Structure formats: C-alpha cells, structure tokens
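Re-run with default settings, no changes from the original entry. Doing this only to confirm the output is reproducible before filing.
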Amino acid sequence: MSPIENKLPDGVLVTSLDTVINWARRSSVWPVTFGLACCAIEMMATGASRYDIDRFGSGPFRATPRQADLMIVAGTVNHQMASRLKLLYDQMPEPKYVISMGSCANAGGPYWEHGYSVLKGVDKVVPVDVYVTGCPPRPESLLDALLNLQNQVIKKKTIGRTRKPIVVEGA
C-alpha cells in the first residue's frame, strides 16, 4: 500500500482528470448515420436487438452531426457525395472519430479500377480512425471496430490528438 492510501477514507477514488474524461467519452460515442450502400444494412442490423450496439454506449444514432462524435461511413462514396461527407464531418464537434465500413468505403471496392465516379477511399476526404474490412462486413465486425475505437479513446490525452488507424478484419 502506498502512503496516500493509508490516509484516505474508504470510498475515495484518486485518479487523473484525463482518465475520467476519457472514460466518459468512451462510454458515450454517438454515431451519425452515413449509410450509402449495402453496408448500411449491416450497420442498421448492428443497432437492432440481436447485436444491440446500445450496450456499448453507442445506441442513439443521431440524425444531425452536431450531436454526434462518430461518423460511420458505410458503403460506396462517389465524388459528388464526398463534399457532403466532408461538410458533415466539419459540423461534428471535437473530438470526432470516423469508422470506414466495407471495401467500398475503404478503397473503392469492386469499382476501384473502372469506376471513375467512385472515391478510392474515404480517407482521401476525412481522417479515418478504424477500418472495417469485408463486403459487406458483418455486424460483429462493426462492434469489434467500435470496441477498438473505445480503446483508442481511453488512451488519448485530452489535449492534442494523433490519428493512427486500425484495420479490423471482417468475418
């Protein structure tokens, strides 16, 4: 036991402010919906009762970016949609996070070579924190990506952020 533990009464918790703030942020990551293609169906299934994203504190899918801190980009992003995606991202309050869901959002999917209108990865427009692979990825993969994002959030300093994306293999 440390000397300070002997002097404190029972029920007193000593921690850093970073730990408390990051615990609160990790426990309430609210996504804004940005479903564009078939991956959006899997994202909706993740919010349904079978997979229940609510138990991770991310249940309320927000319809406005001003109330969300996570953008899940699910599906094919074309060049016309990229400017709107960037606009929504810019309207989100700090700190904000992005999960790129599916092969189309990650790298253009099956359209990467011949689809001139398809963006070759959403990371060309917004910084991505976690990549979810698959076509389309299963809801379990999105839940795993959310847990990985929560682990990133809990380790952050409250002042200053560095982005290192994580790749989650789809099932």
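The two ends are 46 Å apart (CA to CA). The helical segments are 3-7, 17-26, 39-47, 79-91, 103-107, 139-154.
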